[in-house]
Design goal:
Largest interface: A-B, 66 and 70 residues
Distance between the termini of chain A: 71 Å
Low-confidence stretches of chain A: 1-33
Helix content of chain B: over 70%
Number of strands of chain B: 0
Largest sheet of chain B: none
Radius of gyration of chain A: 26 Å
Shape of chain A: globular
Largest sheet of chain A: 7 strands, mixed
Helix content of chain A: 25-40%
Structural class of chain B: mainly alpha
Number of strands of chain A: 22
Radius of gyration of chain B: 24 Å
Shape of chain B: globular
Low-confidence stretches of chain B: none
Strand order of the largest sheet of chain A: 8-9-10-1-11-19-12
Distance between the termini of chain B: 13 Å
Strand content of chain A: 15-25%
Oligomer: heterodimer
Mean pLDDT of chain B: 84
C-alpha cells in the first residue's frame, strides 16, 4: 500500500478524477420565438402518460394538450368574466359524428377521416379500441373514472371498420358521453405503442411515460422533470381550431412569491393556479388579469361524522351550522375568491348545485339549538385538517374553533399529514369533525351526491346514511336530465341533506389564474392548463 | 490512504440500513397516496403489488440491496424517473450553487476575518461582527425574496429567478451537469453568461448565510496564531509584517478554517432547500423534501445514500487537504 499522501500525490489524484467525468447524451436545442407563451406553475409534472400508476394531477394536462378524445366539451362565457368549458355542450374532437341506439345502449362514433397522428399515420377505430382497452385494463384511477361512464370491460368496445367505433353499454347512462370528454379516454397511436410494448408491459407504460404518441394539438418538444415542459404546436391537428401560438413553455417555480414577481413584471404570460391571496392582490393591478373561476361541483365543507355520538343529535348539527362564521372564513381562507354558499332560501326551487344553504352565522339560534339538544353543556371534539391543504384549512379551522367555543363545543385542532389524510378521512372515515373538499369532474348534482352522500362511498367521510337519499341517488345517477322525474328527485335530495347536514357547505373554492400578455384562458373541470385556446396579446 | 477509505465502508452500510428502516417508519401509505383520491380497494392493491410493497419488509430490504449492488437505486414515484437519473441531474445543480456560494463566501469572509483579527476592536472588527450577525440571523428564504424584490422586481437588473437558465438560453450539453463547466468546456460563452447570471442571486443568498462561521473561525484562529510564541519569534527576527501574517500566522490558522469549511459545506447543502424553492433551482434539497412528503421511499433512500457518500468523500478530501496545508499530518506516520 503506497500511502504517504504528499502534495504531489494529491495533484495526481485530482487529474485522475477529472478524466472520468460522465459523458451523457446531448439535449435538444430550444430557442424562444415571438409566438411563444411562458406559463409558470408551482406543480410538477411527473409523467406524460395519464394511465400510468403514480401519475399526478398536474400531469393530466399532457393528456389534454397532446392527445385527442372522441369528443370534447364546448366553451361558454363565465358570468364573472372569462371563459369556461361547457358541460352541457358536447363537441367533436376525433369523432366527426356519433349516434345512440334507441335503447341508449349502443354508441356509434364516426372518426374524422383526416385525423392523423404526429407520425402521419391515420387515426383508426383500432387505435381507439386499443386505447380504451388500456384505460379500463390498467387499474387505478383511469379504470375508476372509466367505470363512472359505464365503461368496464374491453369487450364493450369494437372497431367496426377503420372509421367506425362502437361502444356497447350494460345500461343507458347520461354520464357515458360526458365521461368520454374527460382527460382519461384519450386516443394513443397504437402502432407506435405496440412496437414499444414488451411481454411484461403489454400497454407500453414505460415507453409512453416519456414518449407521448398522440394526435393532439401540441407535441412535447422537451420535458425536463422538475423544471419545464415545452409544447410545440401540431400543425396538422384536426381536433379543433388550430392553437394561436407555436410554443407554450411551462416552467415549474415552486415559490408563490417568485411566481408573483414574474407575472407582475410580465416576464411570463401566465401564472397558473395561484394562491387566493395573490389572486385578490394581483386583481388590483392594471397589467395583470386575474381569472377566479368557482370550481364546478366542488364544495369546501365542514363534515360532522355520524359515528361521533353527539353529532347524531340533529340539534347539535344545526347548532354547528349556525355557529360557523361563514363570511369570515370566506375572507380569511379564500380571500373572497370563489362563491359564498350560505344565507340562501330554505325552499329549493331549482337543481343548481353547489347552492346557497338556508344557514348563516347566527349565534343566538346556535345556542338555542344547543340548549334543545342532549348536550346543553357542550362537549369536546377533535377538528381534523389535512396539512397538505393547510392554506385554506388552517384559517378555517381556527375560525370554526373560536365560534364553536361560544356555544360550548370545545374543539381541538388535529393536523394530519397529507400522506395519511386519505386513509383517515376517506377510507376509515374516523374523523369526528373535519374539513373536506370533494369536487366531481362530471357536473351533475347526482354525481356529487353519489360520491359524497351515499353510504360507503369514498367521499362520504361523515358515514352518512339516509334511505331516501340512497334510493334517489340510485334513481337519478344515470337518468337523463330531461326526464320529468329528474328535477323533483334532485330537489328532494338537496332538501334532505341540507336538513340533515352531514356536510355543512362553507364556500365554493375558485381556481385562480393570472395572465399578463395572454388571452383566451379557459377554465376546465380538471383544473389543469388547457393550452389549446391560448393566444398572445 | 486506502485504509482511510476502507473505514467509510461500515458507515455506508449503516446508512443503507438506517435509511431503509426510516423511510418504512414514515407515516402514510405510498400505495394509497399514489393510487389517487378516487381509487378503490382493488386498484390500491394492484398498485401495492406494482410497487413491491406487498412483500415482507425483510424481503423488500434484500431486493433493495440487490438492486443497489447492480447500481439500480429504484424508481421515484413522485418524479416518475429512475432515482439515479434524478440524482445525476439534480446533485450537480445543488453542488454548483453551493460551491459558488462558498467560494464567494470565502472570498469575503476570510479577508474580513484576517482584517478583524489584525485590528481587533476597530471599525473593521465591528463591521465584521455586524455583517456576520446579519448574515446568520436572516433566514435564507427571506434574504432570497428580498434580493429578488430589489434586484429583479424593482431594479430589473437581475434575470428572472426561474432556475438554472432563463427562457432564451439553451442547456449546454450534459458533460458534468455543472452548467458553468459544461458551457465553458464546449466554448459556449453566451450560455455560460446566462447561467452565471442566474446563479448570482441564489449564490449571494447562500453566501450571506455561510459568511458567519467562516469569518468568525478565521478571526479566532488568526488571533490565536498571532499571539503564539513563534510569531513573536518571527517578529523579533525582523521578518516583514506581510511575511509574518500570511506565511506563518495564516498558514497555521488555516487548519480550523478548513474544518469549519467542511461543516459549512454540508449544512449549506441542506439549507439549500429554501433557496432552491425561492429561485426555482432544480436542486437535490427540494427534490428530497417533496419525496419525503409523499413517502416516496426510493427517492428518499437514494437521497440519503447520495448525501452520505458525498460526506464520506468530503471528509476524505478535507483530511487530504490537511496534509497539503500542514505537512506534519500524515496518515501512515503513526
Amino acid at each position: 500500500m503506497a500511502d504517504k499522501t504528499s502534495r504531489r500525490n494529491f495533484m495526481k489524484m485530482g487529474m485522475a478524477g477529472a478524466s472520468v467525468l460522465p459523458f451523457l447524451r446531448a439535449m435538444p436545442a430550444l430557442a424562444q420565438g415571438s409566438d411563444t407563451l411562458v406559463v409558470v406553475t408551482g406543480q410538477s409534472i411527473n409523467s406524460l402518460d395519464l394511465h400510468r400508476t403514480g401519475t399526478n394531477r398536474p400531469s393530466y394536462q399532457v393528456a389534454v394538450n397532446c392527445y385527442d378524445r372522441l369528443v370534447s366539451f364546448g366553451t361558454k362565457e363565465v358570468p364573472g368574466g372569462g371563459l369556461s368549458y361547457d358541460y352541457d355542450t358536447i363537441v367533436p374532437e376525433l369523432a366527426e359524428s356519433w349516434s345512440m341506439s334507441d335503447d341508449g345502449l349502443v354508441l356509434t362514433f364516426k372518426i374524422k377521416s383526416k385525423a392523423t397522428f404526429w407520425d402521419g399515420a391515420k387515426v383508426t377505430a383500432k387505435d381507439v379500441k386499443w386505447s380504451f382497452d388500456r384505460a379500463v385494463s390498467v387499474g387505478g384511477f383511469p379504470s375508476v373514472q372509466m367505470r363512472a361512464g359505464g365503461f368496464i370491460r374491453p369487450d364493450q368496445f369494437a372497431a367496426i371498420d377503420d372509421e367506425t367505433f362502437q361502444i356497447t353499454l350494460d345500461k343507458p347512462s347520461k354520464l357515458s358521453i360526458p365521461d368520454l370528454a374527460v382527460p382519461v379516454p384519450f386516443v394513443i397511436n397504437s402502432a407506435v405503442a405496440k412496437a414499444n410494448a414488451t411481454e411484461d408491459d403489454p400497454w407500453a407504460m414505460e415507453y409512453l411515460h416519456k414518449n407521448p404518441a398522440g394526435s393532439g394539438a401540441f407535441k412535447v418538444l422537451r420535458w425536463t422533470p422538475g423544471e419545464q415542459l415545452v409544447y410545440e404546436r401540431n400543425d396538422n391537428w384536426v381536433g379543433g381550431p388550430l392553437p394561436a401560438v407555436q410554443r407554450v413553455v411551462l416552467r415549474e417555480v415552486p415559490s408563490p412569491a417568485t411566481r408573483r414577481a414574474l407575472i407582475e413584471r410580465g416576464d411570463v404570460q401566465m401564472s397558473f393556479g395561484i394562491p387566493d391571496k395573490d389572486a385578490a392582490e394581483l386583481a388590483e393591478l392594471e397589467d395583470v388579469t386575474v381569472y377566479s373561476t368557482p370550481i364546478e361541483n366542488c364544495i369546501h365543507c365542514l363534515c360532522t361524522n355520524t359515528k361521533f355520538v353527539p353529532f347524531q343529535d340533529a340539534d347539535v348539527r344545526k347548532a354547528v351550522a349556525y355557529a360557523v362564521p361563514y363570511e369570515e372564513i370566506f375572507q380569511a381562507a379564500a380571500f373572497g375568491r370563489g362563491a359564498p354558499l350560505w344565507g340562501g332560501e330554505a325552499e329549493i326551487k331549482d337543481t343548481a348545485w353547489p347552492r346557497k344553504t338556508q344557514y348563516s352565522t347566527n349565534l343566538e339560534l346556535a345556542q338555542k339549538h344547543m340548549a334543545k339538544s342532549a348536550y346543553p353543556d357542550g362537549f369536546d371534539v377533535p377538528l381534523s385538517i389535512n396539512l397538505g391543504l393547510a392554506s385554506w384549512m388552517e384559517p378555517t379551522a381556527l375560525l370554526i374553533q373560536q365560534s364553536l367555543a361560544k356555544i360550548g363545543i370545545n374543539a381541538t385542532i388535529e393536523k394530519i399529514p397529507g400522506a395519511n389524510w386519505r386513509t383517515a378521512a376517506l377510507v376509515e372515515k374516523r374523523l369526528a369533525l373535519h374539513l373536506e373538499n370533494f369536487g366531481g369532474w362530471l357536473n351533475t348534482p347526482d354525481y356529487y351526491f353519489f360520491w359524497a352522500y351515499q353510504e360507503g362511498n369514498l367521499f362520504n367521510s361523515s358515514n352518512y346514511r339516509n334511505d331516501e337519499v340512497e334510493e334517489l341517488v340510485n334513481a337519478t345517477l344515470h337518468m337523463s336530465v330531461d326526464d320529468p322525474s329528474y328535477a323533483p328527485n334532485i330537489m328532494r335530495m338537496m332538501e334532505i341533506v341540507l336538513e340533515d347536514l352531514p356536510r355543512i357547505p362553507l364556500y365554493q373554492p375558485a381556481l385562480n389564474v393570472a395572465t399578463n400578455g395572454a388571452d383566451d384562458y379557459e377554465f376546465w373541470f380538471h383544473r389543469q392548463l388547457d393550452a389549446r385556446p391560448l393566444a398572445a396579446s | 490512504m486506502s485504509l482511510r477509505a476502507a473505514q467509510s465502508i461500515p458507515v455506508v452500510i449503516g446508512v443503507v440500513i438506517i435509511s431503509f428502516l426510516l423511510t418504512r417508519a414514515l407515516p402514510g401509505d405510498p400505495a394509497v397516496y399514489f393510487a389517487g383520491a378516487a381509487a378503490d380497494e382493488a386498484s390500491i392493491a394492484e398498485i401495492r403489488i406494482a410497487l413491491g410493497l406487498d412483500k415482507p419488509v425483510i424481503q423488500q430490504f434484500f431486493i433493495y440491496v440487490g438492486d443497489l449492488l447492480q447500481g439500480d437505486m429504484g424508481q421515484s414515484i413522485s418524479s416518475g424517473q429512475p432515482v439515479a437519473s434524478d440524482l445525476a441531474n439534480r446533485l450537480p445543480a445543488s453542488l454548483e450553487l453551493t460551491l459558488v456560494a462558498l467560494i464567494l463566501s470565502c472570498g469575503i469572509s476570510i479577508p474580513l476575518g484576517i482584517l478583524a483579527a489584525t485590528r481587533p476592536g476597530t471599525w473593521v472588527d465591528h463591521l465584521c461582527r455586524v455583517l456576520v450577525t446579519a448574515g446568520v440571523s436572516l433566514p435564507t428564504f427571506f434574504t432570497g425574496i428580498v434580493l429578488i424584490y430589489l434586484f429583479y422586481y424593482l431594479l430589473g437588473i437581475a434575470p428572472s429567478p426561474i432556475g438554472h437558465l432563463d427562457f432564451i438560453s439553451l442547456d449546454p450539453d450534459h458533460i458534468t451537469g455543472f452548467y458553468l463547466i459544461d458551457a465553458a468546456l464546449i466554448g459556449d460563452w453566451e450560455t455560460w453568461l446566462g447561467a452565471a447570471k442566474q446563479l448570482i442571486l441564489p449564490a449571494i443568498t447562500l453566501a450571506l448565510f455561510t459568511l458567519a462561521p467562516i469569518a468568525r473561525m478565521t478571526r479566532a484562529a488568526m488571533l490565536t496564531a498571532l499571539s503564539s510564541d513563534f510569531i513573536r519569534t518571527a517578529r523579533a527576527a525582523g521578518l516583514s509584517n506581510r511575511k509574518v501574517l500570511y506565511v506563518y500566522a495564516f498558514r497555521n490558522a488555516l487548519l480550523p478554517v478548513i474544518t469549519t469549511l467542511g461543516m459549512v459545506f454540508s449544512f449549506a447543502l441542506g439549507a439549500n432547500v429554501l433557496v432552491e424553492k425561492v429561485f426555482a433551482w432544480p436542486g437535490i434539497g427540494s427534490y428530497a423534501v417533496e419525496a419525503l412528503v409523499v413517502s416516496d421511499y426510493a427517492a428518499v433512500q437514494g437521497f440519503v445514500l447520495a448525501m452520505a457518500l458525498m460526506f464520506v468523500a468530503l471528509n476524505l478530501v478535507i483530511d487530504l487537504l490537511y496534509t497539503v496545508v500542514d505537512p506534519r499530518i500524515g496518515f501512515v506516520a503513526k
